[in-house]
Amino acid sequence: MVELAGKALSLSYLPATEDDEAVIASRLPEPDENGEINPEYIPDTLPGYLINRIGEFKIGGDVVKTTTAMAMGTELLTETGYWEPGRGWNTSRNEPIAGEYQAYALDLQGVS
Q1: What is the C-alpha to C-alpha distance for residues 52 and 23, in angstroms, rounded to an integer?
Q2: Which of 47, 50, 51 is nearest to 13 (CA)?
Q3: SS3 for 107?
Q4: First-to-last CA distance in the chain?
């Protein structure tokens, strides 16, 4: 835990290939004459079956683990936990979806 204290922990996803990136870009609206995009024109959905993503787990800015390419919207199964002396493991299962962004926080000094 000491090595993780104060570091950002995150799970994010990148397009797996340039073709996947092109599918996403093709769905975004064109910028106006000022180079800005009106958020109202950003689509609410994307064709996930056409887009593959690669997950990256980062500690600080360093990628420590990547996933294989998977279709956007695919549910993953993750388990996080910590060992508490005298009590054993305390774990939780999560189901992040390929394409989501997840940030993790450790409260090593606060209320438990």
Answers
A1: 10
A2: 51
A3: coil
A4: 15
DSSP, res 68: P
CA dihedral 68, 71, 73, 76 (to 10 degrees): -30
In the numeric block, which tokens belong to residue 106? 């450790």
Angle among Cα 97, 101, 106 to the nearest 5 degrees reads: 110
Which helix (H) or strand (E) segment is 21 a member of? helix 18-27
The whole-model pTM stands at: 0.76
Cβ–Cβ contacts within 10 Å for residue 13, how many? 21
Interval 15-73: pLDDT, tens: 999 999 999 999 999 999 999 999 999 999 999 999 999 999 999 889 999 999 999 99
- pLDDT band (50, 70, 90) for residue 110: low
SS3 40: helix
